[in-house]
Design brief:
With about 150 residues, the chain is mainly α. It is built from six helices and four strands, in the order H-H-H-H-H-H-E-E-E-E. It has helices at about 25-50, 55-70, 70-85, 90-100, 105-120, 125-130; strands at about 135-140, 140-145, 150, 150-154. The chain is elongated and about 55 Å long.
């Protein structure tokens, strides 16, 4: 039957949709494929937001994609907006904590994790938390237990 052959090439003729014969060419292909997948996911998230701008899930999805790209200001702004839409939803707080952690803003990360525990006492974070909560202030310094999530220590 009929079929379409697609290619996207660089200005030097390298087909970015074709895996190469060398590890470098394969890495280039995988990087391009990853960027393409993220761009398509961003389009989907933007469409979801356009369809229902009062639903926090679209902002959460787009914020996570922005964070994957290292675009933390946009990512955090989307989490902020999701929280405004549904202040009791803990998922944007948790994701924003991870973003603050990646930016080395540990105080904000801990504040968001504290909020998760206040809003959702049964959260898995509670298992590892100290009885008084995630963090304690001693002379203005935050002292906390170490938590692990997706390879990150809190």
């Amino acid at each position: 039957g009929k079929h379409n052959n697609w290619s996207i090439s660089t200005d030097t003729g390298v087909n970015l949709l074709s895996p190469g014969a060398t590890p470098y060419e394969n890495a280039q292909f995988l990087l391009f494929l990853s960027e393409l997948t993220t761009a398509l996911a961003l389009l989907d998230a933007n469409k979801a937001i356009k369809l229902d701008r009062f639903e926090p899930e679209g902002f959460i999805r787009r914020g996570r994609l922005y964070a994957e790209q290292g675009r933390y200001e946009l990512a955090i702004a989307d989490m902020d907006h999701a929280i405004e839409l549904d202040p009791g939803h803990t998922f944007p707080y948790f994701n924003r904590a991870l973003m603050h952690y990646d930016r080395k803003d540990y105080n904000k990360a801990m504040a968001d994790l504290d909020q998760v525990l206040r809003d959702e006492p049964g959260n898995a974070l509670r298992i590892a938390a100290a009885p008084a909560g995630v963090s304690h202030r001693i002379n203005g310094v935050i002292v906390c237990k170490v938590y692990r999530y997706r390879g990150r220590a809190f």
